[in-house]
Amino acid sequence: MAAKTERQFVRKTGGICLRADARWAGRMSRGYPLMFCGDVSVMLPGNALGAFLLHQRLSEGQIPALLPLTQAEREHCRNRLVGQVAVITGGASGIGAATARMFTRHGARVVIADIQPSLGEKLLKELGPQAEYVECDVRKEEDIEKAISKAYELENRLDVVHSNAGIIGCVGPIDEVRIDEYDATIAVDLRAAVIAVKHAVRFMKPQKRGSIVITGSVASVRGGMGPHGYTVAKAGLLGLVNSCAAELGQHNIRINMISPELVSTPLAAFALAALAEGGSQSVTVDDIDRIVKQNSMLPDRLLTHLDIANAALFLASDMGGYISGHNLVVDGGKTAAHVLQAGGNHWSTKYMPMVAENDFVNGRDVEGLHDTP
What family does the entry list (predicted)? Predict the structure, then answer.
């Protein structure tokens, strides 16, 4: 940050540029908020009296001004998860893969739990020795337990569990819903998260720390944003987060949810194509990108997997250290402003059989099978 820019910022805010030293700030800030600005942090006095006292302390030499961040401090900003261990279910593709990249980039060791071995191995080659792959069908409690136990055994600690696996599930009007398909949807989209939280807490309680992040959906807060079974499951996840936050805070365990709107994956494209008139219209990932961008509340802004990975990093790391029981909706403000028109719920227009698992595992494009917000 150039000296001229520093002076301009200080003049506009009435603040003082400071070195971001946690011990020093805790002793000297007297409650004044610190704000990062480039390679320095800025102490904001908040009012005229605060400004007077702050400048007085500066003039008396109690506060060193205009000191840049040290290299170690800059590294901390770039390495939020150094030495930590994380598990990501549905981690081989889509949001899960983006989050695995983000976590390893910030220094974590990551266990990728998924049923897509080819994509998992491909991701391992990209991420290197910081990542491990575990075959995990989230419908089976023993598979989730195995993945979480493997993560703990890496460093005898478990810092982050990201329950991310999900499917679109049963689609169609409520009076045509097949209960076996509904049960299958709940098994992946809700029950699996309960299991992941259960086994995560078994390791996090004794160590008295941990962060659990669950991938939800805008369907958790607004009807018509997904199929019926999917919506029930995502609303259930929100209940799970609220309930567990009330219990786990005493153990210094945080639990939060990320609720994105539609993110393009091949499975989402396949589902939307099947719902099109007669199934005759093809829908590609590029089509979904275009649709999402056109309907975005933010002009020409496309929601991407990276946006969700950034949110996961925030909630998993000490940046979100006092946040628990929160549903972080990542939709550009759509659920805050959008009113669904009557008849606009395309998820209820026609019945569509659930995508057969074997169709994807045995040859079709499997990216996104367990990763569909």
Answer: Belongs to the short-chain dehydrogenases/reductases (SDR) family.
